[in-house]
Amino acid sequence: MIYYFLIITIIFIIYSEISVSNISLRPDSNGKITFNLRSLLYFLINPLISRTLWTFQTLDINYPFIIIFSYSIYYLV
Fold first, then answer.
1. Beta strands in 1-77 (DSSP E)
2. Which domain holds residue 42?
């Protein structure tokens, strides 16, 4: 089960980076692309703080929704 959620999380991070862009891979002050863990973690927990990602159009980039949905799929199958 841990591997299942780890795979879901990795796929979610890749999908979010492609669809939203500049979440975890951001240019620094020198213009070099760097990995930004803080912005990635904030993006993952943002739906728990704000309502902006709880619309029907943004549920695909809502990490808590994806985890709950994946959890329900896991136990139904």
1. 25-27, 33-35
2. 2-76
